[in-house]
Design goal:
The structure is a single chain. The chain is of the alpha+beta class. The chain has a single domain, classed as Alpha-Beta Complex (Creatine Amidinohydrolase), CATH 3.90.230.10. It has four helices and 15 strands. Helix 1 runs antiparallel to helix 2 and helix 3 runs antiparallel to helix 4. The longest helix has 24 residues. It is globular. It starts with 6 loop residues before the first helix and ends with a strand. Bound molecules: magnesium ion (2 copies). One magnesium ion binds next to loops. The site of one magnesium ion has 5 residues, from loops.
Length: about 250
């Protein structure tokens, strides 16, 4: 069921989204060679809980054990933080975080370079970020869900990369995952029409090589089929008559 949000609910999500954005900055400052993904998880959890009424959305969601999803290099999404996963110079780490605040969830992700990365990886990050911005810009009243996916995939293909199709963006708010699904590919004017008060997470996952994926034996971590790198950027956005309002910037 699609649940449209009242102005008051959108303000609450903006407040939660502000905590989430600050959490990403804390994590970003900690990303360096020698730091484990468990260290990043601890930083994120402590920071979120230091705000009265805020809790991590992901911990316990579908049984996920941590505050962040941390996915290194060929890992696309849903990596489980571990003291054994230590960042190295030249890696990339995708960090996905959700915050539950005032009864509502917000959801966002960033991919960080660990030190200096090679040129192709740097381009992958730039193109994925640009694809997210194109998707956000298409989140306007009167457009359709397919316009968002089309805007994203157009940027990705132009950049010479591939969009992951098995995983999609989604409505977000009272639940972490609400309707509609928001694929990162699509045809203009197809899918649900976007209306005032809709809140969605737009989250392109972009692979340097093949678009295809597989899931590891831990039943969580999704990786690229060819071992090439992947990037993931995400924001929660409110579709409003006055234009898209990014709640997690
Ligand atoms: Mg997310
Ligand atoms: Mg999401």
């Amino acid at each position: 069921m699609v649940q449209l949000k009242s102005p008051r609910e959108i303000e609450t999500m903006a407040a939660g989204g502000k905590i989430l954005a600050a959490t990403h900055q804390r994590v970003r400052e900690a990303v360096k060679p020698g730091v484990s993904t468990m260290d990043l998880d601890q930083i994120a959890e402590d920071f979120i809980r230091s705000h009265e009424g805020a809790t991590p959305s992901f911990k316990g969601l579908y049984g996920f054990p941590a505050t962040i999803c941390s996915s290194i290099n060929e890992e696309i999404v849903h990596g489980i933080p571990s003291p054994k996963r230590v960042l190295k110079e030249g890696d990339v780490v995708s960090v996905d975080i959700g915050v539950f605040y005032g009864g509502l969830h917000t959801d966002s992700a960033n991919t960080w370079a660990v030190g200096v990365v090679d040129e192709k990886t740097a381009k992958l990050l730039t193109v994925t970020k640009d694809a997210l911005e194109a998707g956000l810009a298409a989140a306007v009243v009167g457009n359709h869900v397919g316009d968002i996916g089309n805007a994203i995939e157009t940027v990705v293909l132009k950049g010479g990369f591939a969009v992951v199709r098995e995983l999609v963006g989604h409505g977000v708010g009272h639940l972490m995952h609400e309707e509609p699904q928001v694929p990162n590919h699509g045809k203009p004017k197809r899918g649900m029409k976007l209306v005032h008060g809709l809140t969605i997470a737009i989250e392109p996952m972009v692979n340097a090589g093949s678009a295809n994926t597989r899931t590891l034996g831990d039943k969580w971590t999704v990786i690229t089929i060819d071992g090439k790198r992947s990037a993931h950027f995400e924001h929660t956005v409110a579709v409003l008559n006055e234009g898209p309002r990014v709640l997690t910037r």
